[in-house]
Design brief:
about 270 residues; alpha/beta; 8-stranded mixed sheet; about 30% helix; globular; binds Isopentenyl phosphate
Length: about 270
């Protein structure tokens, strides 16, 4: 059984969060170079990316996180209905995904994409969908998935499956996963105070649920759970024996330092 690491590329890291469908291609490219270096250590990397401005803005506008709302009447220049918006957001996510895939190909890796709306349904950490498709363990193969709009088997019809739920299941259920790394945008890890108030001393290096932090959740643009969801899912994974870390993805060498057992800056979630 080979060694594996699951890495979540945060949506706020790889996209400009408040501008529809703008990707930070330079950051994605640097992350992919680090992924390549990790594979050279003989470790297979599984990537799940967030949605950022390719998913949250339209999903919020069309209230897709609330499921199907029969009385919700809206239309704009792009979409005529919520069902239309579901297709649009799925396509936008495929566009972001294709940027990640092409950067992985450029560094010489063999990415395989697994769009959740094709294989997953229902929401939360116990969403339905078999993970067999992620089974192949060749180090050069990078399985890639992402937060998406998926079908829901009740009157909601659809909903938002966060990449944070996908990383939780992958880390817990796949064989050989040693670590889960959340690569974050704009922060060195979990901070004691909201990022705009924080100094270098506000990094929480080790976190478990009794350690207090004051997270901001941008509910006006974010349809999933923000930092709170990450910590809850991270803790679930840590309790299952996988090491879980939050690292600033704008300094992706820190991820490599962690993998190589060197000193690195970030947060570890304790089981
Ligand atoms: O950014 C959200 O995924 P996340 C997916 O990983 C959509 O929470 C489509 C908004």
């Amino acid at each position: 059984m080979g060694k594996r690491i699951v890495v979540k590329f945060g949506g706020a890291l790889i996209t400009k969060k408040d501008e529809q469908s703008v990707a930070h291609t330079d950051i994605i490219s640097n992350l992919c170079s680090v992924v390549k270096s990790i594979t050279e250590e003989g470790i297979q990397v599984i990537i799940v990316h967030g949605a950022g401005s390719f998913g949250h803005l339209k999903a919020k506008h069309w209230r897709l996180n609330e499921g199907y709302l029969p009385d919700y009447e809206q239309s704009d220049e792009e979409c005529l209905s919520q069902l239309d918006a579901v297709e649009h957001v799925r396509n936008d996510m495929l566009k972001l995904n294709s940027i990640v895939l092409s950067q992985l190909t450029d560094v010489g890796l063999n990415p395989i994409s697994h769009p959740p709306h094709e294989w997953a349904s229902n929401l939360g950490p116990e969403f339905n969908g078999t993970l067999e498709r992620f089974a192949s363990e060749d180090v050069n193969t990078v399985h890639v998935s992402f937060g998406d709009v998926v079908d829901v088997d009740d009157e909601r019809k659809f909903g938002i499956l966060s990449g944070d739920d996908i990383v939780a299941r992958l880390s817990i259920e796949l064989s050989g996963v040693e670590s889960l790394v959340f690569a974050m945008g704009g922060v060195d890890g979990l901070l004691k105070v909201p990022p705009h108030l924080a100094t270098v001393d506000d990094l929480i290096e080790e976190w478990s649920p009794e350690v207090a932090y004051e997270g901001v959740h941008q509910t006006e643009i974010d349809v999933t759970g923000g930092i709170g969801l990450k910590m809850t899912r991270g803790y679930l994974v840590a309790k299952n024996g996988v090491s879980v870390h939050l690292i600033n993805g704008e300094y992706p060498m820190r991820i490599l330092d962690f993998v190589r057992g060197k000193t690195w800056r970030g947060t570890t979630i304790l089981p």
